[in-house]
Specification:
single chain; about 425 residues; mainly beta; Glucose Permease (Domain IIA); 12-stranded antiparallel beta sheet; 5-stranded antiparallel beta sheet; 3 helices; disordered N terminus
Length: about 425
């Protein structure tokens, strides 16, 4: 069959009708030895992923499987997505159902929407275009993680009049490698896990980037650690001065034993400000930094370090708790903080972002009004609104802090 004829079939009403009615499996000619298995059909939408979805236990007592589903409209006409179900093989009830206002909140169009377009338009994928569904599938703490995640979409194809269909799309295997259990990356103190995982539309979670011809979300599980004092202040005095920030100059330590594979210093500090204009070149994105190899295919990134503070060199072996440098404001950073994450490659670009947990910390509370390093210096005061934990400071073990958690790290091995 010629490709142009196949392309026509994909958008033809007959093919879509067969898909919607589920009639393909009932037709003759399917089965062993025929070359096409029962249930095979044309699907106007195709699905793909950019990572191996891996479960990690969060401070809310749930396992989080955070990943992205790219929906490609293979037809020449627009398709409006109405519902997406994430399923486990052989299980009737979906693990997650995303529809209505939640779908509007969790779906974007690759490349964004034209200025002034209502956000709900992101659920409509023009012909030949791609939509992105930002998924956070949650499971009970002790539930078994499925070995595979299946995706079922319900949508309307606008040809030449609206046509409703449901299709099973590509599945993805889940990760079998347990998240790293780490020691603290910072010394004692009160720290806010800003821009953390998993469901909020933060710069980290939704930072999709085309790098070297690949689409990646290199900061999926990254956390920006900002320090506050006992009065919940991140800075006191003049917010345009680095010395006003409690986090500036705080020691950063190895969260696991490993080998230094990258150590960069000498990049100048930024004056505290709003969004940087222009952005630094790609090689200076994380500013002064250290990358440690702590396991095969697992690397710890410490970004935006203070100029002149890096205390290690490439090839050096470090102990857990050993001093690496200090919190700074270099690279793509507006106010002092530690950008920390687990990489799958010994470089920030290109790399995937893997989940991780901390062996021992105390959960103190939750920030009640979002902020980022780009807005902190612009606030009238340095006070961050924090609601204390209802159960008081609670000790946590082998959990991942979630977005805007406020924690205190426990002491680590001496460095």
């Amino acid at each position: 069959m010629r490709l142009r004829r196949l392309s026509y079939l994909i958008v033809s009403l007959c093919a879509v009708a067969a898909l919607a009615a589920g009639s393909a499996a009932a037709e003759t000619g399917f089965g062993p030895g025929t070359g096409i298995e029962a249930g095979t059909s044309f699907t106007p939408l195709a699905a793909s992923t950019m990572t191996t979805p891996t479960a990690v236990l969060g401070t809310d007592g749930k396992q989080h499987i955070a990943y992205e589903l790219l929906l490609t409209n293979a037809t020449a006409t627009a398709a409006t997505v109405e519902k997406l179900e994430v399923r486990a093989p052989g299980v009737t009830k979906p693990l997650a159902t995303i529809a209505g206002s939640q779908l509007v909140a969790d779906m974007t169009r690759l490349g964004g929407l034209p200025e002034g377009t209502p956000p709900a338009e992101a659920t409509t994928i023009p012909g030949g275009s791609v939509g992105v569904v930002w998924l956070d599938v949650t499971l009970p703490a002790k539930a078994a993680v499925p070995s595979e995640l299946e995706h079922r979409v319900t949508a309307t194809l606008l040809v030449p009049k609206p046509f409703h269909f449901t299709a099973d799309l590509d599945s993805v295997k889940t990760g079998t490698r347990a998240p790293l259990v780490l020691g603290p990356p910072l010394r004692s103190g009160t720290w806010v896990a800003d821009e953390g995982c998993c469901s909020e539309p933060t710069h980290h979670r939704r930072g999709l980037a085309p790098i070297d011809g690949r689409l990646l979300v290199p900061q999926r599980f990254a956390i920006d650690w900002a320090m506050v004092d006992s009065h919940h202040r991140a800075w006191v005095g003049d917010p345009s001065k680095l010395s006003s920030y409690f986090g500036f100059g705080q020691p950063e330590i190895a969260a696991a034993p490993g080998t230094v594979v990258s150590a960069v210093d000498g990049i100048a500090e930024n004056r505290p400000q709003g969004p940087l204009t222009p952005l630094p070149p790609i090689q200076n994105t994380v500013g002064n930094h250290v990358i440690l190899k702590v396991a095969p295919g697992r690397f710890l990134l410490y970004g935006h370090m203070k100029t002149g503070s890096v205390r290690v060199k490439v090839g050096q072996k470090v102990r857990e708790g050993q001093l690496l440098g200090q919190v700074g404001n270099t690279g793509n950073s507006s106010t002092p903080h530690l950008h920390f994450q687990v990489l799958t490659e010994p470089t920030f670009f290109p790399s995937d972002s893997a989940p991780f947990t901390f062996a021992h910390f105390s959960l103190l509370g939750q920030v009640t009004a979002p902020f980022t390093d780009e807005t902190l210096a612009l606030q009238p005061t340095g006070t961050i609104p924090i609601a204390p934990s209802k159960a008081g400071a609670r000790s946590r073990r082998a959990e991942m802090p979630l977005d805007l958690n406020v924690i205190r790290f426990q002491s680590s091995k001496a460095g």
